[in-house]
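Journal club side-thread
Mid-discussion, someone asked how the predicted structure for our own chain would compare to the paper's figures. Pasting it here so we can look after the session.
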Amino acid sequence: MKTDYDRNKKRVALLSIAIGFWLIAIPLTFEFKSKALLCSDLLSGVALIALGTMSWTFRRIWSGWAIAGVGIWLQLAPLVFWAPSALNYINDTLIGIILIALSFYLISSPLSESEAGPGIPRGWSYNPSSWLPRLITVGLAMLCWTFSRYLAAYQLGYIGEMWDPIFKNGTLQVITSKISHDFPVSDAGLGAFVYTLEFLLGWHGGSRRWHTMPWLVFSFGLLVVPVGLVSIILIILQPVAVGAWCSWCLATATCMLGMILLSGSEIIATIAFLKQAGDQGDSVWKVLWKGKKVDGAGPIANPKRRKKGEIAWGFYPCWNLVTLLFLGAYLMLSPYLFSSAGGVATAQYIIGPLMITFSVVSMVEVYRAARFAHILLGAVLIIISLIASASAYATWNAVLVGLIASAISIPRGVVRERYGSWDRYIV
């Protein structure tokens, strides 16, 4: 007897075949100025027809991964070959999104959410895979995607002007800088590709995916955190290496920090679940890819500080962490306020964004220990300020900020939720 899962796989295989024919038909319908991109689309279309047929006939799980691989390639091909036409770029990236989304249905385990067990991990006071935070995260990822596509459109030559709402020509200076030109592809287009994966991974899976689809949670978490850090590094490089600010880059980094706030705890729940599965004698590797039904998660823990009826978010903006965030922003502005230059200004440009990053990460309760990084950042700022040549105002301003940051990072602050075995690491 066929299950809904089997029928869905048949439909996905058929759609993959249809998309393959679409990719073959497009070069025959529209003019392709890039022969390399034309060959890429034709070969991708043939591959999809073959993979869809295999999925329909043999039901091999690797064919789902292969279809996802074709979708990823179609996202990257216009960047690799510097697609001369916006039509080529839009067609390939849109088809790539559809293929990656469809491949999830071929890859995913048939473990039913309704039969998978409790939604709240053992010892936790809320569900880290709940839909509301994830929907906001997906929305933020789509904003990042929109900003990056706009920047990529200029780098690829589809538009002739670049608008910056705050820094006038700042965005233009950043995306045409030597750092951008050192990338073999459009760095903004590469960012758009990563944000595509983020909103697709954030959307897929139900509210129990922390134990039904661990691989998906890990993939999503690894994209959110490293990409967020890359965004911060790019912001650091702007005033230091380029001498300009980019409004769209700042907006993207802000959205990325919001995504870390909303999704940071889900990966910890998955790590704890996999450890528990290993302790029970299960194959961690198999559970990672297949998931596992949880027969009983024990009594739901009562939150420490959250009131009844409030939504659980998994983060809390403690006073000291909010202060550290504003101190980081103040450091980024200090070179302009005190006309500082040289080593002190460079240190402020670098340490300021890092302080903002670690303060936001520390607001996620499972990562509260990350606030201690401010002690090191404060010490480095003090040392550089005392040994570098700068005005007295600039020097003592930096020293004072370093002392305050180191001191107020010590209190743990409020923790509202409970996290089972992870509670011991929230210090």
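Post-session note: The chain has three domains: 1-110, 118-301, 319-425.
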